[in-house]
Amino acid sequence: MWVQEKKDELVRRQQKENRMQHCQNVVYKTKANMLSQYQQPTKEPELWKLPRFTKSAQPHLETFRSEAKKNHAMAKQELDKVPRLGTTHQGIYTAAYH
User: Fold this and answer.
1) Predicted pLDDT at 97
2) N or C: more exposed end of the chain, with fewer CB within 10 A?
3) pLDDT, position 66
4) C-beta separation of 84 from 91 below 8 A
């Protein structure tokens, strides 16, 4: 009888501890909690530009006969940039190492 009472008491104590731990880990979704976690989206500021160059700055030379020819040449250069040296891959060809 005494042993059964101790087991029951132990079970009740464990249940109470479980309830207390569960209550400590719960964060309720209140409006104040949601507002404190909300981050407003920010817009990146644009870089400052001289007003006189925003509309009037155009290239002095047009070396391609048409826009289609320019796009075709740029596509070819894009394919050919792998074996070339330099930061923009427009330099001399690299030697093939065997």
Assistant:
1) 63
2) C
3) 93
4) yes
CA 39 to CA 68: how far, in whole Å?
46
Residue 43, φ and ψ in degrees, nearest 5: -95, 135
Q: Name the token pair of 47.
A: 């870089």
User: Where do the domains of the chain lie?
Assistant: 64-98
Torsion 30-33-35-37 (CA) sign:
negative
Q: CA 78, CA 90: separation in Å to the nearest integer?
A: 10
Question: For residue 23, with 0-12 CB atoms within 10 Å meaning exposed, 13-18 middle and 19 or more buried, which class applies?
Answer: exposed
